[in-house]
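Memo to structure team: turn this sequence into structure tokens by end of day. - J.P.
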Amino acid sequence: DLYAENKGEEYVIKEDVRRKVRTLHLNLLSDTLGQIPDPIFVVLFRNTIIYLSKEARRVIIGNIVKKIMPGGYLFTSSTEVPFVKNSGLELCEENGVYYFKKGGGIF
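Reply from structure team:
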């Protein structure tokens, strides 16, 4: 595969891809997410929105979706899937794994 190597029962992200990964510590309610470069292909966002108000969820998910490129992905925990409400995202499922895809892409 282009980005990962099959290691039996799991896939491992290739080293050249891992070097491009950037992690940030942000306050999602008060930061504008301007520190995050555009566009992002994949966002891993887990175990956060279940603790927030409906309005905070709407704002945070909206800001994240603005950063995701068309055809990009948002992964949350399975318990958070029902809390993700955004018209720009499509809920997808493969082999029991749920994720969201932003519309407009070629993937």
